[in-house]
């Protein structure tokens, strides 16, 4: 997992109050992790704050799984690893 992927997972654990073991790439925020609509909005806001970026509503609506959130963040700002992809 990339550094930024780990940061996304930490935010999901903190925001949704789930165990880290539950936060798998294919886990859906609503169905698998028990998030409601307010939780998902707060999660997006936490990601925006953590990574210093804006996530437009139309893009946020497409982030339904842990893996999609990680891919989105890495696509916007890189992996955060020391290999030049930061």
Describe the SSE topology:
Elements: H1 3-16, H2 37-51, H3 57-60, H4 66-77
Helix pairs in contact: 1-2, 1-4
Walk me through this protein's architecture.
Helix 1 (3-16) runs antiparallel to helix 2 and helix 1 (3-16) crosses helix 4. The chain has 86 residues and is mainly α. The chain starts with a helix and ends in a 9-residue tail after the last helix. It is built from 4 helices and no strands. The model has no long low-confidence stretch (mean pLDDT 93). The protein has one domain (3-77): ACP-like (Non-ribosomal Peptide Synthetase Peptidyl Carrier Protein, Chain A, Orthogonal Bundle). The longest helix is centred in the middle third of the chain and has 15 residues, at 37-51.
Question: What tags apply to this protein structure?
Answer:
single chain, 86 residues, mainly alpha, Non-ribosomal Peptide Synthetase Peptidyl Carrier Protein, Chain A, 4 helices
Describe the structure in brief.
With 86 residues, this protein is an all-alpha fold. It has 4 helices and no strands. Helix 1 runs antiparallel to helix 2 (37-51) and helix 1 crosses helix 4 (66-77).
């Amino acid at each position: 997992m990339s550094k930024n992927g780990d940061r996304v997972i930490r935010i999901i654990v903190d925001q949704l109050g789930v165990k880290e073991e539950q936060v798998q790439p294919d886990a859906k925020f609503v169905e698998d992790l028990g998030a409601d609509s307010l939780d998902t909005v707060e999660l997006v806001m936490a990601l925006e704050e953590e990574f210093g970026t804006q996530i437009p509503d139309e893009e946020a609506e497409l982030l339904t799984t842990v893996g999609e959130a990680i891919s989105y963040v890495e696509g916007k700002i890189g992996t955060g690893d020391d290999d030049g992809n930061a």
